[in-house]
């Protein structure tokens, strides 16, 4: 059997297109059952909820507000509150909301506390059982609406950012309405968008990749290139850009589930265990020094893949595809999210480095190379 055999998991049903959120209430009405809503506070205060409220409230028995990446304790408290009362879940929000809903949907069907099932620290295997979940992303970046994993973060007690993972955890239904991105702050559009790019790019370069996974990633990368410069425009070009980015994000989720991720996420996952930085911004900040490493790479397959990628995305010729990509991403960004921002202490950087890894990168990056990436991405204080 091939060592890089690919498996693809995706939603049983995916509704895509502007205005597709209008299908949510009829979807709920078609099969009446006790339904819990996970969302963010901004959704409840926004125009979309105001428009849907009357119809939506006919089909939900309550809601939970998610404001950050959920901890094991928070998931356990939701499970204790709703076990025996909920048969279906709807999640409307960004990646943190969707991951929280995915974790809840699975853990309400499991007997032990959430931490017992977590990758890295758990001692019990998850079972192939979860509540049906309808996922409606309001950002385009994580691809959580189509991934097998629910990210759980505890920055206080066990200092861990890890996943609950099983193919059945892929949401049953995804509703991808690009109009939900309208009006989002430039910083959110950009940092979520670069997260989608990083998923696609690392999957494209993955040691687990093959023709199948790379073509999936390449399709998403093309959509990203179309979308990146125009995400905040309030015209037809902006509408097309948001539609393309929503597709790129979904394909990023499929790609990472099929081929895995690389050193950027090998660092970002550990940083997320101790710092409340936006995950997309973390990935974007690490991406640029990674592209510097990539431009100097003598790894034959990395060089071949980058040489093949460039003409698929850009018409201009270049001697350094990685440097061209880095400059294009920075020049075309709607906001310079990688400038200024938070810092890391030397002790925090050392903590991250002690746990970081190259994941599925083609190259096993050294501690010194990962240290360089961190030092270029953040100001390191004593």
Write the SSE topology:
Layout: E1 13-16, H1 24-30, E2 35-39, H2 41-44, H3 47-57, E3 62-65, H4 72-82, E4 88-93, H5 95-107, E5 133-137, E6 149-154, E7 160-165, E8 173-176, H6 186-204, H7 211-227, H8 236-259, H9 263-271, H10 279-295, H11 300-313, H12 321-332, E9 343-345, H13 346-355, H14 367-377, E10 379-381
Parallel strand pairs: 1-8, 2-3, 2-4, 4-5, 5-8, 9-10
Antiparallel strand pairs: 6-7
Provide an overview of this structure.
- There is one protein chain.
- By secondary structure, the protein is of the alpha/beta class.
- It contains 14 helices and 10 strands.
- Helix 4 crosses helix 5 and helix 10 crosses helix 14 (367-377).
- The N and C termini lie far apart (51 Å).
Helix content: 40-55%
In percent terms, what proportion of residues is strand?
5-15%
Q: What characterizes the major β-sheet?
A: 6 strands, parallel
* Mean pLDDT score: 96
Order of helices and strands: EHEHHEHEHEEEEHHHHHHHEHHE
Task: Give the end-to-end Cα distance, rounded to a whole number of Å.
Answer: 51 Å
Low-pLDDT segments = none
User: How many helices?
Assistant: 14
User: Biggest sheet, strands in spatial order?
Assistant: 1-8-5-4-2-3
Give the overall form.
globular
Number of strands: 10
The Cα radius of gyration reads 20 Å
Secondary-structure class: alpha/beta
The gist of it:
Helix content is 47%, strand content 12%. By secondary structure, the chain is an alpha/beta fold. Strand 6 and strand 7 (160-165) form a beta hairpin.
């Amino acid at each position: 059997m091939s060592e890089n055999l690919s498996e693809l998991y995706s939603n049983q049903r995916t509704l895509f297109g502007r205005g597709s959120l209008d299908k949510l209430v009829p979807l709920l009405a078609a099969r009446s059952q006790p339904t819990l809503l996970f969302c963010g506070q901004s959704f409840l205060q926004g125009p979309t909820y105001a428009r849907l409220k009357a119809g939506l409230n006919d089909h939900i028995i309550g809601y939970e507000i998610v404001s950050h990446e959920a901890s094991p304790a928070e998931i356990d408290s939701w499970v204790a509150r709703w076990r025996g009362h909920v048969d279906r879940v709807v999640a409307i929000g960004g990646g943190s909301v969707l991951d929280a809903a995915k974790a809840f949907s699975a853990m309400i069907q499991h007997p032990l506390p959430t931490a017992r099932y977590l990758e890295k620290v758990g001692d019990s295997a998850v079972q192939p059982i979860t509540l049906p979940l309808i996922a409606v992303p309001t950002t385009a970046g994580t691809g959580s609406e189509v991934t097998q994993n629910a990210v759980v973060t505890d920055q206080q007690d066990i200092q861990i950012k890890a996943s609950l993972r099983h193919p059945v955890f892929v949401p049953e239904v995804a509703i991808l309405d690009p109009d939900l991105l309208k009006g989002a702050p430039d910083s959110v559009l950009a940092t979520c968008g670069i997260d989608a790019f990083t998923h696609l790019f690392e999957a494209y370069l993955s040691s687990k990749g093959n023709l199948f996974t790379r073509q999936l990633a390449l399709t998403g990368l093309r959509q990203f290139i179309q979308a990146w410069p125009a995400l905040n425009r309030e015209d037809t070009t902006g509408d097309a850009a948001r539609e393309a980015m929503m597709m790129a994000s979904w394909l990023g989720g499929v790609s990472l589930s099929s081929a895995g991720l690389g050193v950027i996420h090998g660092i970002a996952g550990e940083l997320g265990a101790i710092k409340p930085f936006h995950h997309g911004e973390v990935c974007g900040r690490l991406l640029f020094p990674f592209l510097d490493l990539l431009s100097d790479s003598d790894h034959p397959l990395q060089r071949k893949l980058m040489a093949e990628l460039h003409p698929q995305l850009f018409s201009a010729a270049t001697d350094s595809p990685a440097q061209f990509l880095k400059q294009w991403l920075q020049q075309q960004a709607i906001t310079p999210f990688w400038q200024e921002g938070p810092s890391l202490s030397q002790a925090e950087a050392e903590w991250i480095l002690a746990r970081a890894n190259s994941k599925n990168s083609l190259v096993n990056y050294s501690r010194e190379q990962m240290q360089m990436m961190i030092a270029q991405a953040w100001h390191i204080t004593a």
